[in-house]
Amino acid sequence: MGGIKLAILYATIIMGAGFASGQELLQYFVGFGTSGLWGLILAGVLFALTGWAVLEICRREGYKDYRELMGGLVGARLGVVFELLAALFLFVLFVAMLSAGGAMVAQGSDIPFTVGIVVISAVILVVLWFDLDGIVLLNTILTPLMVAGGIFIGLYTFFNRTAEAFFQNAVVPGWILAAVVYASYNIVPTLSVMSSASRLAKSRRDCMTGGLLGGAVLTVLGICMALPLYLYFADIISVEIPFLVIVVGYGRVFTLMYMVLMLCAIVTTAITNAFALIEWTRGYISVGRRVQCAVLAVLGVPAAYIGFSNIVGYVYPLFGLLGIFQVVVVLLSWYTPSGKKIA
Questions:
Q1: pLDDT tens for each residue of 189-221
Q2: What's the pLDDT band for 172 if we cut at 50, 70, 90?
Q3: What's the CA gap between 74 and 343, in Å, rounded?
Q4: Average pLDDT score over residue span 159-169
Q5: Alpha-carbon distances of 303 from 53, 83, 87, 320, rounded to whole Å
Q6: 42-90 per-position pLDDT tens digit
Q7: In angstroms, rounded to a whole number, what is the distance separating the alpha carbons of residues 191 and 66?
Q8: What is the pLDDT of residue 162?
Q9: Top-confidence range, 269-273, 326-330, 335-339
Q10: Where are the beta strands (DSSP E) in the chain?
Q11: Is there a contact between 53 and 231 (Cβ–Cβ < 8 Å)?
Q12: In sequence order, which residues have a C-beta less than 8 Å from that of residue 189 and are 6 or more positions away?
């Protein structure tokens, strides 16, 4: 069961608002036409191998958190730099979830953006008071529902749309680079969370299951949710929550189903990344856990006004370079004798 729990947690980290909204799929894959589907598969392979590798490394070397992992792979000094950058990105991801939640509420109802982000921030704050076991339990319940719902909504909207051409031409080339950047910036928070959760892996098989199953789930879900985006490309290219535009045309029940799915993706991803950030800060400051949660929630609200699509399109790629380096280091160290540093 440890491997399955890790796979669920792994998928949850990546399957956030950017994924569920269609915004990341639209910007990093759909715009490249048929090649975008190959890009999704490539990203899935990178997720699977890197997830498996980091769990196996932590189990093999006894690393218990991100600090020990990066210190062991690249040395203490460079490890601190990576820690700071990863912590910053974890905060960016938390802010992105709040922004996506506010955008979804504002786009799908008459509730103001500000009210949406404040309410969602409060919900996340309450959930953050629980430890990792509570978060894993929440993800274990919600993630299978999100995966099943995402596959159903994606395939249903795809097979019920026949008026437009299937694929769109890519505006610019580079689907391979887009896939690598997408996978890499998602690896940054993944390493932080999965290294802390590696204690759930009791064997090499758990490590393998956690990585490969998590990557496979993300690949299948990504393809299913990307297909409708090709068909509605002209209608969704400039909106914050592309999938919401699509599902509105299928009635209130379908729209409500999707909004619940999206809300689950926002909450689970936000609390998982926020938990990793709080765990990291506890190593440097002695402020109580609940105080840290409150400060994080308060800081996240004004930052959410940057805008969800802007964060996905401009901020995420900046961390892709950090992610690419980490992916290379992790995969190389997978085959490196114990005790030797890669960088």
A1: 888 878 877 888 888 898 999 999 999 998 998
A2: very low
A3: 5
A4: 52
A5: 34, 21, 16, 21
A6: 999 999 999 999 999 998 888 888 888 888 888 888 888 888 888 888 8
A7: 7
A8: 47
A9: 326-330
A10: none
A11: no
A12: 13, 86, 89, 90, 93, 273, 276
Q: Which residue has the tokens 């919401």?
A: 244
Contacts of 284 (CB under 8 A, 6+ apart): none
Of 241, 264, 244, which is closest to residue 254 (Cα–Cα)?
Answer: 244
Would you say 273 and 90 are in contact if contact means Cβ atoms under 8 Å apart?
Answer: yes
- For 2-334, the fitting CATH number among 1.10.8.60, 1.20.1740.10, 1.10.150.320, 3.30.565.10 is 1.20.1740.10
Which one, of 90, 276, 128, 131, lies nearest residue 195 by Cα?
A: 276
C-alpha closest to that of 121 among 136, 149, 99, 140 = 99
